[in-house]
Amino acid sequence: MSKRHQILDSFKVKRSQADFWLNCLLYGCLGLAFLPITLWVASSANEQSRILHALIVLVMAIFTLVLYTRIDITEPLTLNKSARKTLFASYGLLLLSAISPYVIPPSSVYLNVIGSLLVIPAYCCGLASTVLFVFGRDLRRITYTATGTFCAFMLLSILMAPLDWPLRTLAGKWSGAALSAIGKTVELGVVGNTATEPPQLILLVNEHPFHVASECNGFGVILTSLLLSVLLTIYRRKGTIEACLNILAGITLGFIFNTLRILIIVLLAPSMMEHYHLMHEIVGTITYWGCLILTWILLKGPTQTEA
Fold first, then answer.
1. Inter-residue contact 253 to 295 (CB < 8 Å)
2. What CA–CA distance (Å, rounded) separates 171 from 179?
3. What is the CA angle 254-224-164, rounded to 5?
4. What pTM does this model have?
5. How far apart are CA 71 and CA 4, in angstroms?
6. Which residue has better confidence, 227 or 185?
7. In whole angstroms, what is the distance from residue 259 CA to residue 254 CA?
8. Strand, helix or coil for residue 210
9. Contacts for 24 with CB less than 8 Å, ≥ 6 apart
């Protein structure tokens, strides 16, 4: 029997049971409570292409895990133990987030920030519970992997703005050091830091200026490679040390490939100024996907069906 027919047959049996509709009401209320954060995720993805690309890659990676993992649906549309635990966790974290402004003193800035961020793991617990309720407890491995990584994605997305300038500076310094090593004359500086003109980070290579813009900060490729490392760490059930090494590898690969992208663009630019934007996009696409494919291979992402 196909998985779709399993769920449909289960619905036909359970639709006459009061507890089934009570469970649906609990999930419906949870969905309404999380509507603002759902809209925020959609808005962030729409406004920031790097976040959208990271989200698309995350969905593709999860689909790949589903494709290469043997999945069985057992007792669908049932509030099994795993679904119940994550449902209670979601409501509990949501309640803590709601009451935290009233019990935490305004002077405790960090505690207030933590309290407001509790809504993100609450949201992901709600997603996990919904999947486990609909498809059954045997999807725990995939579900916890997907929602755990999605939680990391949402938390990291918040850091995009504050990390922009530090990452740009680091990308400029790394690229400048590499270019200096191959004999180029390099200067890195800030221009236009006035009340009317935002500061620009300029990398001067052999008298050719290159603006290290927000798109060059590497947040997109670093975020995505980091998310892949988190995804595979959870999926492979790594220990603490291996998990830290995997995450460090993901971040390092992101930095290296972003620096490589800047190097290639700077070296090709003088001879390809007429087609600069096309070259910029091609180099960016190749290095972006090259980083992600290498991250997947090095961290042992599945490439064939696994039990």
1. yes
2. 12
3. 70
4. 0.88
5. 13
6. 227
7. 9
8. strand
9. none
